[in-house]
Design a protein that fits this description.
alpha/beta
Length: about 375
């Protein structure tokens, strides 16, 4: 009977405390305190933590334990909420651990591990040569460096066209081995729509891609803007709608007139991410190296698209730093004493000198003896 009364009292306390009255966090702490009082036990931090997890309205609190990042990780649900609230979505490519850390630190919403790595990282003229295994290596590095943004990996050319089974296998590897949250595939032809639907039905989140699809340059005749005629504009819109019907959670629109991108955005009810498609989309994506002005090599200048805005000139900074390093090495200025932090005690130095002299290595012994002289500002 005592336990039943305590349980009834506990139930009454919980019912009387609402988020509207004092806030959800205070409610959880108050609930834990009353629970300890009702059962005659002190309210310990661990019991409060267990109570907070049990009371949480957030699935990750009740399903997943352990620490969470200071900022909540971007999920499909949160991305959808941004879209529903009319907030713009930022997407930047990342290909390795350092770029992922920068993208994460900047608060970018989505990190896209793009097959553009073939061009800006591997130095190819197109995206076609990069393989699934190479993409997986990039994905793994990015997943280690970015803990906050939604991670989307490009399915590379040749990894999903043969059959839906091939596509599911490649996409599964992207998630399981690469640590991605979703995959992106190019095109909106019937076969691509079928593949997208098969992936979604398999539990894999898919981002679509219409307009210029670089993996199809052999058919398109090169990197050419799309949707500039009535027929091709209508096709872009229709293909985007088909990809939405297949279950894609977002659609990239590349290199089309602003009016066509606006039509796609209005005709669909999922986020549209523009690249060279004007400002009427739900968000924008740029290539990491392009927006940073990362490389000055003629090859990179040749493949940098006209629509890319350069937000920094990191390439010049990098080149300048490397040139200064080369000069300081040539003159002997670097490393100097400021960057030679490790020392051997005088006693051990003398022992080493004697050992070297015993072995007939007089020049080596002389070098050891010369070091204190150099440290005192000698040669």
């Amino acid at each position: 009977m005592a336990l039943r009364r305590a349980a009834q009292r506990l139930h009454g306390v919980a019912a009387s405390i609402t988020r509207r009255e004092i806030g959800s966090e205070t409610a959880r702490i108050a609930f834990a305190s009353h629970r300890g009082a009702a059962l005659g036990a002190p309210s310990s931090p661990s019991s409060q933590q267990q109570c907070r997890r049990a009371m949480s309205h957030r699935p990750e609190d009740s399903v997943y334990g352990g620490p969470r990042p200071a900022e909540p990780r971007m999920t499909l649900k949160r991305l959808r909420a941004k879209y529903d609230n009319g907030e713009r979505i930022s997407v930047v490519t990342a290909y390795d651990y350092p770029s992922a850390v920068h993208v994460d630190s900047a608060g970018i919403d989505v990190a896209l591990v793009g097959d553009s790595a073939a061009m800006v990282v591997h130095g190819h003229d197109t995206t076609l040569p990069i393989t699934l295994d190479e993409m997986l290596s990039h994905c793994k590095a990015v997943s280690r460096g970015a803990s906050r943004p939604l991670l989307v990996g490009d399915l590379p050319f040749g990894s999903y066209e043969q059959s839906t089974a091939q596509a599911i296998e490649a996409a599964t590897r992207m998630l399981k081995e690469g640590g991605m949250d979703a995959v992106k595939l190019e095109g909106g032809s019937p076969s691509r729509v079928k593949t997208a639907k098969a992936l979604v039905d398999s539990g894999i989140a898919v981002m679509g891609h219409v307009g210029l699809t670089p993996q199809s340059i052999s058919v398109l005749g090169g990197f050419r803007p799309q949707g500039r005629s009535f027929e091709t504009a209508a096709q872009v819109v229709e293909r985007a709608m088909e990809l939405e019907r297949a279950g894609c959670f977002a659609i990239v629109i590349e290199c089309v007139p602003r009016t066509v991108a606006a039509a796609v955005t209005a005709a669909t009810s999922v986020p549209t991410i523009g690249i060279g498609a004007g400002d009427a989309t739900s968000g924008q994506v740029l290539v990491y190296h392009d927006l940073l002005g990362m490389m000055q090599h003629p090859h990179h200048a040749k493949v940098t698209p006209k629509f890319c805005k350069q937000y920094a000139n990191v390439g010049e900074v990098i080149t300048g730093a490397l040139e200064r390093f080369k000069d300081e090495v040539s003159t002997g200025e670097f490393p100097g004493m400021s960057y030679s932090p490790y020392r051997v005690s005088d006693e051990d130095s003398n022992r080493l000198v004697r050992l070297l002299e015993q072995k007939g290595l007089d020049a080596a012994a002389e070098a050891v003896l010369d070091c204190p002289y150099r440290e005192d500002g000698g040669k």
